[in-house]
From TrEMBL:
UniProt KW keywords: DNA-binding
A Pfam match: ORF6N
Annotated protein name in UniProt: DNA-binding protein
Species annotation: Candidatus Vogelbacteria bacterium RIFOXYD1_FULL_51_18
GO molecular function, one term: DNA binding
Stretches assigned to the KilA-N DNA-binding domain: 18-101
Length: 173
């Protein structure tokens, strides 16, 4: 028997970078999903609008103009050209529903990868929360004996401040 080489449709890291936190939910933009499914964004939104009853607000919602403006400023996109309306965003459940609406082999395969990315992010968050809880328990239990050790660990947990290098020529004086 020969094993089939599984072709990676989309790297998980690419999907994880496309997952955003909006209104306290992990979501993906319609244009990012359209790119992954290899369809035009308008085709994706048309399919969704034809099946709107499958997408309640906890599956999909449209950004407000203020949210869209804020998001565009974060991505430093031009206000000229491009979209004329705020994008739709899809939660993990909305992404699953998209595979039934788009009904293509690629949509199904890409959805599997996307759902796995959502699950992986949830597991990372849970493991970090669990680790912090266990650390707090240990710190409380052995507070006096290991104060120096815990202080050192706390210092390691603080993200380092990055110093910006000056750009340009420097004169030696």
């Amino acid at each position: 028997m020969t094993k089939k080489k599984s072709k990676v449709l989309v790297p998980t890291e690419r999907i994880e970078r496309a997952i955003l936190l909006i209104r306290g939910q992990k979501v993906m933009l319609d244009e990012d999903l359209a790119r992954l499914y290899e369809v035009e964004t308008r085709i994706l939104t048309q399919a969704v609008k034809r099946n709107l009853s499958r997408f309640p607000e906890d599956f999909m919602f449209q950004l407000t103009p203020a949210e869209w403006k804020n998001l565009r400023s974060q991505f430093v996109t031009s206000s000229w050209g491009g979209r004329r309306y705020p994008p739709y965003v899809f939660t993990e459940h909305g992404v699953v529903m998209l595979s039934s609406v788009l009904n293509s082999g690629r949509a199904i395969q890409v959805n599997i990868v996307i759902v796995r990315a959502f699950v992986r992010l949830r597991q990372l968050l849970t493991s970090n929360t669990e680790l912090a809880r266990k650390f707090a328990e240990l710190e409380h239990k052995y507070d006096k004996q290991f104060r120096v050790v815990f202080e050192a660990i706390h210092q390691l947990m603080i993200p380092p401040e990055t110093k910006r290098r000056q750009i340009g020529f420097r004169l030696k004086t």
